[in-house]
């Protein structure tokens, strides 16, 4: 695990291993060790108890018998995240302390926000109002919503692209969920194209066989794509046609990077 990725997931994995090895842990000591508040540690312990790796006690936590005897609790918890949300997990590994990131799309934003909570000095901008509720049960801080019109079907705000361009001071990385109804539309597609002009890295997330037609225009402006490995046969040819090359396989996720940008002539509808 890269040491720079001091996010909530890594901290929780470390706490799980600590409790397993030592038999118990103290909230105040853990807060001092990880440089976070006691509220954050209590949130971590609550999560780990819900996952069945420890039992909270007064002022801390104690270990319980591992239901999968002989298996490292650290590896078990990491495996659960990888299996449940493999693309969101790999996307979260791209973020480092101090980054300004944009999480576009309600499902992706909620999953990544949980994985990113705890990264120091992280600032998140999003079009997903659902992040407000995520803040209630994670140590997530520094969340800003775009504003705009709310679309209940897509569960996102739209119509914010021009305003963001006028007010944003720069985005280190944007993560854009290309999901949605393949036979429908996505209200924020134009906003996502505007977003790509403000970010150093624009990473598209594909987790379904089909995407809304409007998102194919967004694809033209991305620098990278993370794709569920099981969708390789469905998407590889299209991504190559749009100027991407497969870089590497990371577990259940394929990474494609922009090899070239298409010219206006080849990208015209």
Automatic annotation (TrEMBL):
Record keywords, A-Z: Transcription, Transcription regulation
Start and end of every HTH deoR-type domain? 8-63
| Record flagged with keyword Transcription | yes
Protein name, UniProt field: DeoR/GlpR transcriptional regulator
The answer on whether this UniProt entry bears the keyword Coiled coil reads no
Task: Please give the SUPFAM superfamilies that the UniProt record associates with this protein.
Answer: Winged helix' DNA-binding domain (SSF46785)
Domain of life, per lineage: Bacteria
PANTHER family documented for this protein: AGA OPERON TRANSCRIPTIONAL REPRESSOR-RELATED (PTHR30363:SF44), HTH-TYPE TRANSCRIPTIONAL REGULATOR SRLR-RELATED (PTHR30363)
Named from the GO MF annotations, one term is: DNA-binding transcription factor activity
Which Pfam families does UniProt cross-reference here?
HTH_DeoR
Which InterPro entries does this one have? Carb_Metab_HTH_regulators, DeoR_HTH, WH-like_DNA-bd_sf, WH_DNA-bd_sf
């Amino acid at each position: 695990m890269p040491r720079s990725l001091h996010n909530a997931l890594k901290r929780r994995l470390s706490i799980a291993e600590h409790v397993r090895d030592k038999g118990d842990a103290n909230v105040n000591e853990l807060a001092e060790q990880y440089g976070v508040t006691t509220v954050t540690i209590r949130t971590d312990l609550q999560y780990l108890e819900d996952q069945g790796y420890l039992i909270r006690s007064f002022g801390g936590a104690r270990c319980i018998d591992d239901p999968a005897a002989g298996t490292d609790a650290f590896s078990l918890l990491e495996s659960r995240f990888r299996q449940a949300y493999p693309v969101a997990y790999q996307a979260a590994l791209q973020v480092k302390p101090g980054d300004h990131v944009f999480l576009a799309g309600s499902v992706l934003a909620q999953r990544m926000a949980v994985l990113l909570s705890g990264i120091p000095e992280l600032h998140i901008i999003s079009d997903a109002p659902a992040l407000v509720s995520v803040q209630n049960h994670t140590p997530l801080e520094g969340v800003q919503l775009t504003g705009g019109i709310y679309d209940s079907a897509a569960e996102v705000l739209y119509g914010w692209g021009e305003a963001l361009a006028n007010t944003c001071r720069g985005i280190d990385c944007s993560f854009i969920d290309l999901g949605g109804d393949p036979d429908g539309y996505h209200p924020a597609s134009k906003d996502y194209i505007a977003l790509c002009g403000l970010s150093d890295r624009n990473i598209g997330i594909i987790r379904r066989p089909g995407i809304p037609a409007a998102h194919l225009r967004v694809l033209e402006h991305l620098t990278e794509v993370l794709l569920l490995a099981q969708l390789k046969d469905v998407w590889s040819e299209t991504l190559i046609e749009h100027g991407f090359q497969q870089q590497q396989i990371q577990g259940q996720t394929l990474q494609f990077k922009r090899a070239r940008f298409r010219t206006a002539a080849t990208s015209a509808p």
